[in-house]
What we know:
By secondary structure, the protein is mostly helical. It has helices at residues 2-5, 8-28, 41-53, 61-64, 67-98, 100-111, 118-147, 152-167, 186-200, 203-211, 221-245, 257-269, 286-298, 311-325, 340-367, 372-383, 398-424, and strands at 331-333, 336-338. It has one domain (2-424). The protein has 17 helices and 2 strands. The protein has a two-stranded antiparallel ribbon. Strand 1 (331-333) and strand 2 (336-338) form a beta hairpin. The protein is globular.
Amino acid sequence: MLRTLSHPARLVPVAFLVVVTIGAVLLMLPVSRADDSGPVVLPAAFTSVGALTGGMVLVDTATFWTPFGQAVILALIQIGGFGIMTLATTLVLLVNHRLGLRTTLVAQAETAVNLGEVRHILRRIVAVTVLIEAATALVLTLRYWIGHDYSFGTSAWHGVFHSVSAFNNAGFMLESGNLVGFVDDAWVIVPMCFAAIAGGIGFPVLVELIRRAGRPSQWTVHTRLTVYGSAVLLFIGTAAFLAFEWGNDDTIGPLGPGGKLLAAFTGSVMPRTAGFNSIDYSGVASETLAVTDVLMFIGAGSAGTAGGIKVSTFFLLAFVIWAEVRAEQDVNVAHRRISSATQRQALTVALLSVGVIASGTIAMLTLTDDPFDGVLFESISAFSTVGLSTGITPGLPDSAQVVVMALMFIGRVGPITAASALALRSRHRLYKLPEERPIVG
């Protein structure tokens, strides 16, 4: 039994399931709830899954849970974010150990992870996490205290909670309106956006950026894909948000130019995949929903706190398409050739993700009368562990909410599990079958 669970592809989901169960039990305790009336099992289970995976929110965190319940949620958020980073980085080490010296050296160069530095890596993860969360919490605390007349204790608690939630891309807030009340407050929005970007970009990229600061020519392919890809998506997302929402009175229409730009930047950052919202997504244009769907599906960086198929996966597939269009035999990125095994893994993760989202969307459509675009939005948000919602999730029937929970769980542990399983099961056949080319397209 223990030997079976020692395989990373089985250990990750089992570990998360155990923590989810413990979190749900703690949230079901009377001391965790502000009101003892009403159902508790589903809200507790849903919140535990959402907090650990950084996904959807079912009930108002500020009013439904007591400070003890909020502390449990905060612990789940931190465990989920730190655990994903640690497990993802450890899985890289496990994969390297199994693939031989040559492949190990290649993987080390691509991930900025040294096989002999496990302890140092874990220490760096802790140091980076504490540093970014502490800096964000300090700024938020001062802003709540000085700029919004909160008491110092309330300001400190909100600052710590929101900084941890932002860095771990969780989307949980102690404000009933999420960030809507701070839509044009740069002292709240900007720190949370940058904390979300730092947590979502991925620990291997953060380490390399620190090691090779000012030397982008020495970045690995993974870092180039993640950094430049994230910059492109941030620009496109912000521009699209401004274009489609500029005159929308239900979202950013009443704001000044500076407020509109800040809201658009937030609308580009948070879908990948922090999940905070500074505008009401039930009032956005259909075009904005479609752009947000794409951003949520892509997500952020690998081995970080975000979900989605990951930026590197998306842009790697873009390079595969580009090479095929140009009739090139090899896929080259930044003067490096991408192996066919890596291409197959990226394609597998992307198509499996599409399949899971499609299955979840169809299942939810059969269980509810909500429109397709809203259900698709919720499905992608759940699978990509974003947490954004058009507002239909709390009103879904229990069976549909269970589907959302399953999507969050699969979306968080699935891509890592699938990628590690594919890598660890890599093998070479001693023979090749005759080649045939079926008609494509």
